[in-house]
Design goal:
Strand 5, helix 7 and strand 6 form a beta-alpha-beta unit. By secondary structure, the protein is an alpha/beta fold. The chain contains twelve helices and eleven strands. The protein is globular, with a radius of gyration of 20 Å.
Length: 374
């Protein structure tokens, strides 16, 4: 497809397609499209991004990979019972959930899976090709919303799962978004393939809550010449993410690295302090994030700022995923290649651009101008 083609439907292939974030993406898109709820949290539905030629929400077609077997309608009911989705929504958008669930294919590698990396990549790419052809899509954007992996070992002869899916996206000619801290396209063995593909991509690690606040507060201290002495934080998580991170210290370290990176980038140094992620199953899909910031003011006066963020990760992440799909799809349609400048606004560890939120917002507006003019 080229920039001059007539717009068609756009595929959204979710890696982790039956998880909380993916379920909220599918249900939320259907709800907004049907006029059941306003597009709260969707930056692409605001005036600054109007007229960019983005694919309409009602043109999005969903599918994906997952090892989980719980159907999307059932998962939506569970989220509604936990207060993540409105109680009426699963029934109201059941047809859309069923349609997306019918397009979910088994992921991998599964326990006992003897396929090598090449066989897995070929199988995943074939699933993407079949989905795009079956639904007669102009393009399919692959988005990783799966559970966080540990940081990849560069000496391991096998690619991590996130990189297998990323490689499959490249092979199938699909733009790619990594909304997780997992390695994905950043594996050294994929660097040249990503460059040669000519595809746009974006990542890494969606900025939804605590780190979003850090990206605002860090520049505030730096620009006001207030010396931050220590910055500590705690995350209390429930749901699958909390359990997975508690069970895998490597995955938790990968998650924390992005949060610490924002402070180093915006303050110019990494302050003392630690960051904990604790599993609290009773919280379900909700989380509480607490930060304690010790800083010096004029004449060495010691002061403290404490923040508490309570929210639902799925509801925070879903509109960002939809924004990224629409922006990356449009970038592909107009021929942009490589990491898409201007999408750092959405990530803890962006491929390009500034680290402070105001600077990232200006870069996003610059991208919007490019898309309008294309």
């Amino acid at each position: 497809m080229t920039a001059h083609d007539t717009p068609h439907r756009t595929g959204v292939w979710l890696v982790g397609a039956r998880g909380s974030v993916a379920t909220t993406v599918v249900a939320g898109c259907a709800a907004v499209t049907a006029g059941l709820h306003p597009p709260t949290g969707l930056v692409t539905e605001t005036e600054p991004l109007a007229g960019c030629g983005l694919p309409p929400l009602d043109s999005l077609v969903f599918g994906g990979h997952d090892l989980a077997t719980t159907p999307l309608p059932k998962r939506a009911e569970e989220l509604a019972a936990g207060g993540v989705l409105p109680y009426h929504l699963p029934a109201a958008v059941r047809a859309e959930l069923n349609a997306a669930d019918a397009a979910v294919r088994p992921g991998g590698p599964q326990p006992g899976d003897r396929r090598d990396d090449e066989e897995l990549i070929a199988a995943f790419a074939a699933d993407l090709d079949a989905f795009t052809r079956q639904h007669r899509l102009a393009r399919t954007v692959v988005v990783n919303v799966a559970t966080t992996e540990p940081a990849a070992d560069p000496t391991d002869p096998r690619l991590p799962a996130s990189s297998l899916y990323a490689a499959a996206a490249l092979r199938a000619g699909c733009p790619y978004v990594n909304f997780t801290p997992s390695t994905g396209l950043r594996h050294p063995r994929l660097r040249q393939a990503a460059a040669d593909s000519g595809l746009p991509y974006a990542g890494r690690d969606g900025k939804t809550g605590q780190t979003l606040l850090r990206a605002v507060l860090g520049p505030m201290f730096a620009q006001r010449a207030l010396r931050v002495r220590a910055w500590s934080g705690t995350n209390l998580l429930g749901g699958g993410d909390g359990a997975a991170l508690a069970a895998d210290p490597g995955a938790a370290a990968a998650k924390n690295a992005g949060k610490a990176r924002v402070l180093a980038d915006t303050l110019g140094t990494t302050p003392e302090g630690t960051l904990h992620i604790d599993d609290v199953p009773a919280l379900g899909d909700w989380k509480t994030a607490w930060d304690h910031i010790a800083f010096d003011g004029f004449l060495g006066t010691r002061m403290v700022l404490q923040t508490i963020w309570q929210g639902c990760d799925s509801a925070l992440a879903a509109p960002l995923v939809l924004d990224l799909v629409r922006l990356v799809a449009r970038a592909h349609a107009v021929g942009l290649r490589g990491p898409v400048d201007g999408l750092g606004f959405y990530f803890k560890d962006p491929d390009t651009g500034p680290s402070d939120l105001p600077g990232q917002w200006r870069a996003l507006l610059t991208l919007a101008d490019r898309l309008r003019e294309a």
